[in-house]
Amino acid sequence: MEEKTKLESALDELLAGKSTEEIVGPNGLLKQLTKALVERAMNAEMSHHLGYEKHAVGGRGSGNNRNGKSRKKIQGDFGSVEIEVPRDRNGTYDPKIIPKHERRFAGFDEKILSMYARGRTTRDIQSHLEEMYGVEVSPALISEVTDSIIEEVKAWQSRPLEPIYPIVYLDALMVKMRHEGRVENRAVFVGIGVTLEGTKEVLGLWTSATEGAKFWLQILTEIRNRGVNDILIACVDGLKGFPEAIQSVYPKTQVQLCIVHMVRNSLNDVSWQERKAVAVDLKQIYHAATAEEGEQRLQAFEEQWDGKYPSIGKMWRRNWAGIVPFFAYPAEIRRAVYTTNIVESLNMTLRKVIKTRGSFPGEEAARKLLYLALKNVARRWNATRDWRVALNHFTLLWGERIEAAQARPVR
């Protein structure tokens, strides 16, 4: 407590009478203190490395000693500052606080990545860093920082997965990117799995020219090769051939047309003033206790809304066979399956970051940004609501499959 009091007193004396500009301005006290602290820490590191303090008699004849200093400019929240880095004659000193070849303070790269993950363009990031910290950052530096995660993305994309996922959501969105010299719309495929613990994880990101069942077959094969032995329920959109692709890899999986997609597609052409009312009436359909009751509520919906939006009822009729399995699940599993938080929050975030760019220079650039955006979304995901109750039902219905998938060795 006494040390803290002394430190506070010293700081009070240091800051007394100084303006904000004098403290945090381009040549302010914060920058001077940072320079002094870093250089002091490096000199302490050098003493530890050599085994004796500067000017100490014990250093004579030790075989290595101090050999002047070199200068380098570092960047951080405080702006740019030039520091003096001590050298030893043998060249074996390796700084820890600011490593060799490093010119940015810990945390500075994270700020660039954080802004990049939120869809900020290179120009936006440059302007923000200059405005907030007085730091001039080149486009090349921003590219260098964001490119540093490419290996991380590759490792993440090939990491082993859980042996079984009770629920997997499979979705795709279209992204403009340059491919073979021209800008074109390409599909980015996303798989989201719910684990036996009720946590959600993104299984991977894949890109292709189109959203096709054949490419989904490749994705599912890759997922299996990464250790997924079984999937209990796969929630998909209405892509033709998709169920066949899933069942060719996971023949026991129950394919369920994604209720979230159905509702989202239903509301696409509904006016903003009536979206809430239409959504409430659609909810009556998929909240029905049985398929028969659901069909009755669909009929009531058509009677109410066919005059304005006839395409909605027709779409639900056309896809009814893919919706019917949903009514066989107990309420707890239904809630776990149709929860909109996972798919909707993911799509909203990805579309938001994509919107800031006209197009991507290539697949790698798109995957890099989407990966960072996904990490941001995943931090906000909570465990699936009432998961323990839902898991009890999964175990009652498919307990043998769960045990078999966990016991089977990884391929």
Concise summary:
The chain has helices at residues 2-15, 20-24, 29-50, 108-117, 122-133, 139-147, 150-157, 213-225, 242-249, 259-267, 275-286, 291-305, 310-318, 320-323, 331-338, 341-355, 363-380, 387-407; strands spanning 66-76, 79-88, 164-179, 182-194, 200-208, 230-236, 254-257.
Structure description:
- It is a single chain.
- The chain has 411 residues and is of the alpha/beta class.
- It has three domains: 2-106, no CATH class; 107-148; 161-407.
- The protein has helices spanning 2-15, 20-24, 29-50, 108-117, 122-133, 139-147, 150-157, 213-225, 242-249, 259-267, 275-286, 291-305, 310-318, 320-323, 331-338, 341-355, 363-380, 387-407, and strands spanning 66-76, 79-88, 164-179, 182-194, 200-208, 230-236, 254-257.
- The strands form two sheets. The chain has a five-stranded mixed beta sheet with strand order 5-4-3-6-7, sandwiched between helices. Strands 1-2 form a two-stranded antiparallel ribbon.
- The model has no long low-confidence stretch (mean pLDDT 80).
Overall structural domain count: 3
**How are strands sequenced across the largest beta sheet?**
5-4-3-6-7
What's the quaternary structure here?
single chain
| Structural class assignment | alpha/beta
Number of strands: 7
N-to-C SSE string, H for helix and E for strand: HHHEEHHHHEEEHEHEHHHHHHHHH
Can you give the helix content as a percent range? 40-55%
How far apart lie the N and C ends? 58 Å
- Tell me the radius of gyration: 29 Å
Shape descriptor reads: elongated
Could you describe the largest sheet, including whether it forms a barrel?
5 strands, mixed
Mean pLDDT: 80
Q: Residue ranges: pLDDT <50 for 5 or more in a row?
A: none
Count of DSSP helices? 18
Portion of residues in beta strands equals 15-25%
